[in-house]
Amino acid sequence: MGGPIVVPVLPTYLDPERVTHCALPFGRAMAQQLGVELVLLSVVEVTESLRSYLEAEGEQVEQLIRRWLQQRREAIVRLAETVRDVSTRVEVVLGEPAKAILAFAEGERAAAIAMSSHGRLGVTRLLVGSVTFNVVQHARLPVLVVRAGIPIPPPNAPVSLSPILVPLDGSPLAEEAIETALTLLGRHEPPALHLFHVLTDREEPTRWERYLADIAQRLQERGYRTTWSLGQGSVAEAIAEEASRRRAGLIAMGTHGASGIRRVLLGSTAEHVLHTTTVPLLLHRPRAVSAAIEEPSLESGPLRVRDIMTANPITVDPDTTLEQVAKLMLEHQIGAVPVVDAEGRLLGLIREEDFLARERPIPFSALRAPQLFGRWIDAETIDRIYAEARRLKAGEVARTPEVTVTEDTTLGALAERMVAANVRHVPVLREGKLVGIVTRHDVLKAVAHRPSARSEEDRSGASSR
Fold first, then answer.
1. What is the pLDDT of residues 286-338, one digit of tens each?
2. Residue 5 · residue 31 · CB < 8 Å
3. What 3-state class would DSSP assign to 169?
4. Alpha carbon of 175 to those of 1, 171, 197, 212: distances in Å?
5. Ramachandran angles phi, psi of 284, nearest 5°
6. What domains are defined for the chain?
7. What is the pTM of this model?
């Protein structure tokens, strides 16, 4: 028998709406599929401020805590006694909720954690919402997040975890979610799978059709019923709509944990999906993330900017016209160009989004007429902005970058700063002089491959968009 399925729960006197109980039927179903034990885990939190207050009031703190633990156990045992057809155990521990849940699950070598998100219900975020969020951020094992709904399902409610909707973005990291779902749910009755990709405006559908069809064929050859489709629009909304259309039992997605890389690569897609759909979300942290970011070898140490940056990027001087800047960006397929002085000192950055500024429309629209990143423009506007592009100089338009880093900045620190400033391109400086540029795409490559596996070609030439 493998590790258990852990379901964190609160007693009804702390959770009157029984939000934490919403995950119970799903945890039970997973435990049945795997033939493992179901653990109902409840964490009693005693903060230092509460300890101080009790001591000031003359309470016997340790005695009171023991009474709380016993009261909690009795309440959770009563809940466990209502669960049928699966071996169930109750555990009550003392600690900070998210940390205690993770420590317990890892100590038990749990197969997965199943827990509720408060959604729009009234239980405080302190009790439920933030705990779930923190567990998802830091968990190394799969976490099934069930959004609470009304009415609250009884513990033995029959639930279907099939078909499984798997959003894919073309990366091996996203594809790992397939194997995670099959490992948890494919033992007795193989689930059906539906692969899904949300197209961006610039993507060619034919390529993605081939990609999804190829993965589907491989899964079909292994005996899994597999279908696929393409969507368009907002990623989170498209995923939620497809899950509803396919009557999915759950959505399996990759997440990048708390390192900051998660939000750089995936933004808050998983969070947005969770709050857009009532379909449970199976979140999985790809192995490559832990290997590349959170578990660096003693020999190599943590990844740093120098390991992933584009050295000696394409630059322009302040007298370069914006027409010339635009042509450079198009020719080399880059999303930003640093503006430097004769000594190589950074004066500013011109990014492709700067060309969309309403107060200063400039040359991309002329060079990609008649469509400007999905926005149609007329001939008169093209003539006007073409003339503007010939007149304006890079030094007049370049903006001071919100974030700069050095070659020694760690990848984790870089990621956090990119997230905080919501930027895609970051100049790398050495004593004020530009020595490189790093992009979100560079971060993605770092996660997908260890530095030793990357060739010098990966770090040379033009920066990626």
1. 664 444 444 444 344 677 888 888 888 889 999 998 888 888 887 777 888 99
2. yes
3. coil
4. 27, 7, 12, 11
5. -130, 135
6. 5-147 (3.40.50.620), 164-294 (3.40.50.620), 305-459 (3.10.580.10)
7. 0.62
